[in-house]
Amino acid sequence: MIDFFLDPFSSSFSQRGALVCLLVAVLAPSIGVWIIHRQLSYMADAMSHSTLVGVALSFALFGRGAILIGALAAGLTVTLIIAYFTQKSALPRDAVIAVVASGFFACGIIALSRVDTNISLNHLLFGQLLTVTASDLRIIMVLVVIVLLYVTSNFRDLTFVTLDPLHARQVGIAVARQTSVILILIAMSVVVCISAIGIVLTVSLLIGPALSARLVTSTIAQQVLAGTGLALFQVFTGFVVSYHLDVAPGPTIAVLGTAMFLLIYLVASLVRTDLRITRQAHH
Amino acid sequence: MLLNDAALNSPSGPVLSVARLSVSYGSIRALDDINFDIGVGEVVALIGANGAGKSSLLKALAGQIRHTGDVVIGGRNCHHLDRHVVGYIPQVSSADHSFPIRVRDVVLSGRRRFGRLGFRPGHTDIAAVESCLEQVGLADLADRPLSNLSGGQQQRVMLARALAQETDILLLDEAASGVDERRADALIDTFDMLADRGKSVLISSHNVAFVKRRFKRCIGINTSLLTDGNPSEVLDADTLTSLLSK
């Protein structure tokens, strides 16, 4: 029985992949809760899709070791462009995101077809957990530490601004600066997640566990903690299941995230209904 | 009108002094040359019809919108976005009421004014939160999620949050509207109690009868300032016609 769980982690590739899973699971809900409550899910998805062009160009210019830095640069560039258009015009943000991000994604596909890389498009789109290099791992660890340090040391200010930005400004919080920092941290987190489950499925990890946790928690701290537990379960179960079914780990982890959300939603609804009926019976 | 700095800096000077204040939205003049003072411990009603500029005036005083003219608080001429010394509750709350947060933590956000980046509340902050929740009658609900409270209770949480800021002046936009008479009276009782402790309150209302019954001073505006004094004396038929016509 124990072999069932240990076999998937027997090679050095898979051990490195498992370490990435652990880092992603700890990171994702810590930033995911702010993405959800600030309604930035689509923005995160846009950043994720835009990284493809950064990966292709950085590979062409600097080689394999630079692709995560290239992805981060592309994510930040698209964020700046979207911020410019939404601040300088009255255009709805989601529409601007749709147009800008799809253009970046398409540029990435064209660039990748022109650049002679040994990375398959499929790996980039749907995950490359087993091809993470030691250099990638170092970059991922640095990014995770930066994001976690910021969100833990500024937890209350993040809470106050997300609850009420106008009031937060009134009590002395630099709201605009915090918003910019959060967007940069989301770009960093996207880069970490694409290493695990790829560009297309990144939002599944960034948002899925934190959203599922919201169904069963009533404070933001509880949501982060429950989300971390769910994310750990999601990535490691996905990793083990994908090994035994011989399918790619990225999509398996993503499917599990959606299944967990649906299941928790169903159970939470049933429990709430049960509680309501019990209360009515007592009255 | 030039402000007399010496008078404003004296202990008996006004806590809030507004001079030549105007607000425009594009080509529309919402407020024109507003001048008034509010003294320490005064509870003042700001009266006017819908669209008269009450909300614009309170937003301008709270530093939420741009204006021309001077706003002097506690003897200091405030920069536009430097209004940490003012507690403000807007008519429509800007808070996300579905956000997962306990009532006591909402009130705690008022204490951030005394903290810095990486704010950690101390014993004084925690005691202040308890005290403010008691003042608005919500001590029992301190650990409830904000989203579980009724609209009226949520409004009282926002009042407790403003009280926790311990500012010398509180600005409230239609805080007594949408609540029953008993609750509105209780609210004014709370403000009278705060006034006894030296706080000043400016609260907007369009309810003339309520203002006449509960306030000793009202400021009436309809784009410009029309009247300032005891409501039972200054709110005569002619003034009311000017105040409420648009």
Question: What report would you give on this structure?
Answer:
The complex is a heterodimer of chains A (283) and B (246). The longest helix of chain A is centred in the last third of the chain and has 40 residues, at 175-214. The radius of gyration of chain A is 20 Å and the shape is globular. Chain A has a single domain, classed as ABC transporter involved in vitamin B12 uptake, BtuC (Orthogonal Bundle), CATH 1.10.3470.10. The model of chain A has no long low-confidence stretch (mean pLDDT 88). In chain A, helix 2 (12-37) crosses helix 10, helix 3 (41-62) crosses helix 4 and helix 3 packs parallel to helix 5 (93-114). Helices cover 84% and strands 0% of the residues of chain A. Chain A is mainly alpha-helical. With 246 residues, chain B is α/β, with parallel strands linked by helices. Chain B has 2 domains: 1-85 and 167-246, 3-Layer(aba) Sandwich (Rossmann fold), CATH 3.40.50; 95-166, no CATH class. Chain B has helices at 5-9, 54-61, 103-108, 123-135, 151-164, 181-196, 208-214, 231-234, 237-244; strands at residues 16-25, 28-38, 43-47, 68-73, 76-77, 86-89, 169-172, 200-205, 217-222, 224-229. Chain B is globular. The two termini of chain B are 28 Å apart. In chain B, 41% of the residues are buried. Chain A binds chain B through residues 37, 153-154, 156-157, 159-160, 162-173, 214, 217-220, 222-223, and chain B through 62-64, 81, 83-84, 86, 88, 90, 93-96, 99-102, 105-106, 108-110, 112-113, 117-121, 145, 161, 165.
